[in-house]
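Box S1 | Example of a co-folding query
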Amino acid sequence: MGEESTVARILGFRLADYNPQCAGMTEFVSPLWLQWPDTTEVCVLDTKVHGYHGEMRASAKLRGKGQKKVFICDQCAADEFVIKAQFDYHDACDDLLEDEPDIDIVDYFTGIIIIGTCAGCSAINEVLQMDL
Ligand SMILES: [Zn+2]
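Box S1 (continued) | Returned holo structure for zinc ion
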């Protein structure tokens, strides 16, 4: 991926609303959408269907429901970010690839980290981090 600097708003669900132990944390859980400046939205992550356990129809991860929230910078409360995502794969993916060479292994990530760099103050916000 190149140095794409388009900003987007991040829509999803607050982890703290689903896990009281995470009160005060700004992190989100899926489903997660990006909303572009022209207001079109694209779902970028839904742990029910994406990732290793989602693909196996065995996801047990917290998942938001209802009204989407807007992710806000924890430094300046701006809501536009430059987004970066990192996908991780572990050994189970190698086994799977050996056993079932026809599947699309990129969909079977076992971890994801989404980082938003605030368009307002340049603070780096961790939007979502999950093992899947
Ligand atoms: Zn900010």
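The mean pLDDT is 88. The chain has one domain: 9-131.
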